[in-house]
Predict the structure.
Amino acid sequence: MNLSKRQMAARVAQDIPDGSYVNLGIGLPTLVADVVPPGREIVYHSENGILGMGPAPEPGTGDPELINAGKQPVTLLPGGAYFHHTDAFVMMRGGHIDITVLGAFQVGEGGDLANWATDDATMPPAVGGAMDLAVGARRVLVMTTHTTKDGRPKLLPACTFPLTAAAVVDRVYTDLAVIDVTPDGFVVREMVDGITREELQARTAATLHFGVEP
Amino acid sequence: MNLSKRQMAARVAQDIPDGSYVNLGIGLPTLVADVVPPGREIVYHSENGILGMGPAPEPGTGDPELINAGKQPVTLLPGGAYFHHTDAFVMMRGGHIDITVLGAFQVGEGGDLANWATDDATMPPAVGGAMDLAVGARRVLVMTTHTTKDGRPKLLPACTFPLTAAAVVDRVYTDLAVIDVTPDGFVVREMVDGITREELQARTAATLHFGVEP
Amino acid sequence: MINGRRHVFEQPLHADVALVKAHLADRWGNLVYHSAARNFGPVMATAARLAVVQVSAFVELGSLDPEAVVTPGIFVDRVVVA
Amino acid sequence: MINGRRHVFEQPLHADVALVKAHLADRWGNLVYHSAARNFGPVMATAARLAVVQVSAFVELGSLDPEAVVTPGIFVDRVVVA
């Protein structure tokens, strides 16, 4: 029933149009690059100063200084470019990134995003470029499990963790559903097979609405 | 008696140490580069994006896009670099320019500089990078005729024209004298041959003090 | 006041359209400039809603040195060879 | 408020010393970097009172392409080859 991480990534990838400038957040979202349908030319941005990032290098062939923001080895496609931190953030803050895919600890029904700090003192907070991406990208997609490992809902009437940004999330992709953030709150567009509306609602703290994509 | 423009430039050039980063303002100050004593390596900055600017090219050999901020053709020395407007101003505002030599309409005895607009409506104001240089350069040298063409003093108790920057001028080089701006006001360090203190004071609206260089 | 020193806060200016001259461009819009012609182009390209660039030549994707690209293509919307 | 949108004004941070890693330097302190190692170095070099740079090699003045210098030497105070 629940989508695997790779299946979630594939669902996100469907919604990334050819020719987009895309920044994939550290963690789960980086899987998206592996499952983009063939034939689409996506230009990946990394906030440590790369545009036109390619897949991970063959083992043993990588350039130790060519890494993404998550410190994983990557490659550069023909047409790629290097630049410094400030220019990387000018791209993000200036609205030049078409789509960012970010992980989340919590999403509020008004589109608030919390993805950098929890109430768990053993997990050090880590914001990276998430605030700038969340505010600056034209479209903010969230990719996350529907609930925490111990079953607590992540989709809430309002976030309880510190916000990354307010009212920025456009769509949430979970292992159970695809959910839009609308002026009316969360609207479920797709559900995995084998789950009912009531079961999905039971795993969600905010009220869910159900509708077909406009 | 009065120094020629080239003599004024030579006097300024004496005070530019080997290895300095220098920005020469448009007009009179550009002459300084021609008369720097041989053996001194000066790195000239131009706010249109050049560091390591060399002398004017031989006639007919210039690169039409390699020009200084005054739109005169220049060359690039080995070690020179090109950069964009913002980086050029980061150098100026960030305190990286050791010395700037600027022209002036008026200098106040507190070190105020007015060099971008007059009360003459037929002369369009033009500020260029002067405000950023005047505030950002570590040392601000002014090179100007002692009086206007019609004999009005340029060294005043306070400027009457709009200021470029307040309390920034370190030293003024005129065709008659070398004058420091000190906490006590203008202190004359050198005078040309054939002029008396009284004659110099008569051409100066602010009170002049006379002293040897500390 | 920043660090005890007075500063003027200038509001950022945005342009609807920037017309920029560069030297070479590739299909992604990556640009290199020629000498002091670099002055305003790279800055304005980042600040405009639409950046239209005139270049002297269009080159194959991958033939510009990624270390020497001055304006990454993300800031460029249209390229005209003239 | 800038253009009707709320912004946070962050005070600029200055460093007394920046320790930067670059790829090549010349006698004037001009620097080029290698791929994504460019990230923070060029920015911090401009913001520090003293910029100390480690490079893998020191090259002849004039051998770095003036169009491709990333950090002009004016921002660099000391260079160490290591």
User: Anything to note?
Assistant: The mean pLDDT of chain C is 92. Residues 15-81 of chain C form one domain.
